[in-house]
Specification:
The chain has 170 residues and is of the alpha/beta class. The protein has two domains: 55 residues; 94 residues, Immunoglobulin-like (Sandwich), CATH 2.60.40. It is built from two helices and eleven strands, in the order ααβββββββββββ. The strands form two sheets. The protein has a six-stranded mixed sheet, with no helix packed on it. Strands 2, 3, 4, 6 and 9 form a five-stranded mixed sheet that branches. α1 packs antiparallel against α2. Bound molecules: copper (II) ion. The site of copper (II) ion has 6 residues, from loops. InterPro entries: Cupredoxin, EfeO_Cupredoxin. It holds the Pfam family Cupredoxin_1. Keywords: Membrane, Signal, Transmembrane, Transmembrane helix.
């Protein structure tokens, strides 16, 4: 399993590579002679280049879709210590684990350990428990609540871009 950083790094690299190749190819293209008063020149690109760029773009879109829709980190069960179900969630390019399993009716403490400096992840929200908390960088911020009903409860970053689930079981 990749880490998210590796994936984003390789995506960015691939994008850059595609961009550079196509602009280099464009620059190397001889400009065809156009009518003297025409503002536009037709630039002929070899079909293989067009197809290559299209396939590269589609592959990139595919990987991103897969990542957002289907890649889920495995659920992790919180361990109970002295009546509190406790678990550490690493905040680094998302939430790790992004799915947490707890028992109903018992206090929960989620320790959000923020490693990611991006402002996107500086807040965590648990709307179902009326929690909105700032996460200090390189610190552990404990979030406590007691789920009284089983079900799935979402936690998100301040802009609702990164998400995780607290699964409350009977
Ligand atoms: Cu965000």
């Amino acid at each position: 399993m990749f880490s998210k950083k590796t994936l984003w790094g390789s995506l960015a690299g691939l994008g850059l590579l595609l961009g550079t190749t196509s602009s280099a190819a464009l620059a190397a293209m001889p400009t065809s002679s156009a009518a003297p008063n025409s503002q536009f020149r037709s630039v002929e690109q070899p079909l293989a280049l067009k197809v290559g760029v299209a396939i590269g773009g589609l592959a990139l879109i595919g990987v991103e879709l897969w990542w957002f829709l289907f890649s889920k980190s495995p659920a992790q069960k919180a361990e109970a210590h002295q009546g509190i179900q406790e678990l550490t969630i690493t905040v680094d390019g998302g939430y790790q684990p992004s799915r947490v399993v707890v028992k109903v009716g018992q206090p929960v403490r989620l320790n959000f350990w923020r490693n990611d400096p991006s402002s996107c992840l500086e807040k965590v929200l648990l709307p179902d428990f009326q929690i909105a908390s700032d996460l200090a960088l390189n610190h552990v911020t404990p979030i406590e609540f007691t789920p009284l009903k089983s079900g799935e409860y979402q936690f998100t970053c301040g802009m609702n871009m990164f998400r995780g689930i607290v699964e409350v079981q009977d």
